[in-house]
């Protein structure tokens, strides 16, 4: 437990740097581009993150799961890199289709579509879950945090340069693209210094040959990761398609500020998963304690959002974004719920129930996306935020029920002693 708290501390320190710098570049982008321009920017970033989220395999989990044996992470790393290359191919096809069709359903000017496609490709080539997995396998959270800090630093510097030299959507997207490349290079460099990366082990067949059921785990975690990342970005795209670019920009700001807890939930999940893999018998107790801590932290964060969120929103993004305050509060509550559920979801995945975790995430997400237009017609951005809140609540309830069932299955019944002879 001590090591887990220390690792979470490293990750939270990185999140702290990211949070502070994100306020800088968010303020620069919103005030420079305005509500509509920031909406175009938000749609392009959402397209890139949607493509990457859908195509990207959660290879860091494979490295942790199959690289912890006596033979080392060589084959697991080779399998992960092969999946990354597959992600680039599949993602490029998806990006081409998404950018071509955007003219028919997104409020995005046609002159920005080549920029959107280029950003999608850069995001795909900057996939970095494999080196992240190598660092987490060795519990090198300090190195990982230092490498990941490159992204917000480059974004902030790039945003400043964009304001000075190219104060347009093009300038800010170029800054974001440069940050993606920089953080990927930093993580691969850090992982390469800690672990020898043998490119001759790249293969899609060795791990599945030695570990039956590997492909089932791969696809389950991929679908879950796609839902966790892609669905949130798809939501921004759909909000823009239904309400226009101003709605997309407003929802992006509300989501970034209100759902900072979701990033915290992902941080907790990433730190606790390797510990649960190694903990075995103590996994349930560890997950329960982390959920209790998360409950307190989430409640405090929601109170901060309610009492100080409006002032913070207008200070960072400007007065014209003040209308998204209640959407931000609703998303903060959804983030608090996700924070509680993070350890429960990790427990299911570490126990080999990735498919169950996917179903518990997929069904509420699909329901929420299906009800999005009805919710927005009812109450605009607040309605969209309520779909996120409902999906998060249903998913975490599902995780809780599944964990209870899992704990009942894993309890061993003490055999009844044989009757002693009279």
Automatic annotation (TrEMBL):
Domain of life (superkingdom): Bacteria
Entry keyword Coiled coil: no
Keywords: Cell membrane, Membrane, Transmembrane, Transmembrane helix
Pfam families: Polysacc_synt_3
InterPro entries named among the record's database cross-references: Poly_Biosynth_Transport
GO CC terms, sorted: plasma membrane
Membrane disposition: Multi-pass membrane protein
Principal location listed in the UniProt entry: membrane
Protein location: Cell membrane
Transmembrane regions listed in the UniProt entry: 7-26, 38-57, 78-106, 112-137, 290-309, 321-342, 354-372, 384-406
Designated name of the protein: Lipopolysaccharide biosynthesis protein
Organism annotation: Erythrobacter mangrovi
């Amino acid at each position: 437990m001590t090591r887990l708290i220390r690792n979470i501390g490293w990750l939270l320190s990185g999140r702290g740097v990211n949070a502070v710098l994100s306020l800088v570049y968010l303020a620069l982008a919103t005030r420079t581009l305005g509500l509509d321009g920031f909406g175009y920017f938000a749609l392009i970033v959402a397209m890139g993150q949607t493509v990457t989220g859908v195509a990207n395999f959660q290879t860091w989990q494979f490295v942790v799961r199959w690289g912890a044996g006596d033979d080392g992470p060589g084959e697991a790393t080779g399998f992960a890199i092969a999946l990354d290359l597959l992600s680039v191919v599949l993602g490029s096809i998806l990006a081409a289709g998404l950018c071509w069709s955007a003219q028919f359903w997104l409020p995005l000017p046609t002159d920005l579509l080549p920029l959107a496609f280029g950003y999608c490709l850069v995001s795909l080539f900057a996939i970095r879950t494999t080196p992240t997995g190598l660092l987490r396998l060795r519990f090198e959270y300090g190195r990982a945090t230092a490498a990941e800090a490159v992204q917000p630093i480059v974004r902030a510097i790039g945003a400043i340069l964009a304001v000075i030299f190219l104060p347009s959507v093009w300038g800010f997207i170029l800054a974001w693209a440069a940050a993606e490349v920089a953080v990927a290079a930093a993580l691969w460099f850090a992982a390469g210094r800690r672990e020898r990366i043998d490119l001759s082990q790249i293969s899609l067949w060795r791990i599945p040959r030695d570990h039956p059921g590997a492909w089932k785990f791969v696809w389950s975690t991929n679908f879950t990761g796609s839902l966790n990342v892609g669905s949130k970005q798809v939501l921004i795209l759909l909000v823009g398609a239904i309400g226009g670019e101003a709605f997309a920009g407003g929802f992006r700001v509300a989501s970034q500020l209100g759902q900072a807890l979701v990033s915290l939930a992902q941080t907790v999940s990433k730190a606790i998963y390797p510990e649960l893999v190694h903990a075995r018998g103590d996994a349930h107790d560890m997950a329960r304690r982390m959920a209790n801590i998360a409950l307190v932290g989430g409640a405090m964060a929601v109170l901060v959002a309610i009492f100080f969120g409006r002032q913070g929103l207008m200070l960072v993004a400007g007065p014209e974004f003040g209308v998204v305050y209640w959407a931000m509060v609703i998303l903060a509550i959804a983030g608090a719920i996700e924070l509680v559920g993070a350890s429960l979801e990790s427990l299911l995945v570490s126990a080999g129930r990735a498919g169950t975790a996917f179903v518990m995430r997929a069904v509420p997400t699909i329901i929420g996306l299906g009800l999005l237009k009805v919710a927005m017609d009812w109450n605009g951005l607040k309605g969209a935020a309520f779909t996120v809140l409902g999906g998060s609540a249903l998913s975490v309830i599902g995780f809780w029920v599944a964990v209870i069932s899992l704990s009942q299955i894993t309890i061993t019944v003490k055999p009844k002693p044989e009757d002693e002879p009279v």
